[in-house]
Amino acid sequence: MPTIVDRSEQRYVGYRATVAFDGMADVAHRIAAIIGELAERGLEPACAPFLRYLVLGTDMRTVTVEAGVPVVDPLDLGDEYFNAVLPAGKYAQATHHGSPEGLFAATADLLAWGEKEGVRWDRAVEPDGEHWAARLEIYRTHPQIEPDPNNWDTDLCFRLAD
Fold this sequence. Notes:
10-stranded antiparallel β-sheet; alpha+beta
């Protein structure tokens, strides 16, 4: 059952791309690359990495998405990467337990719950698609510690309009 939670702003290092949905794995693999860059500097992520969906294309074939890894302080990882901050605020949160293949259905369930509850999402519908302030998949399970994707936990956190 989804809940409403307050989230503080969160600094992160990210990588952004606009891809077809079948290109999502390439963006997701950037999480490991960022964590590797942090490790080379003797740093660890401040908390769980995530994907941040920024624009869902009107054609439902493309998505602008960020791979993000929370950090304590901004750092320069090169031209491919940037520093940013997730906005503070109220978020609807639901946890999906299981394989990433179930995230599409879990997302649909969260959106349906929001509609039933009269939730107003922090998003705008533009000619090119839905623009979200913060629509997150937060990966709570480290795949090297728990290799079975059926045991993974992923939090869906979607920011509410003020």
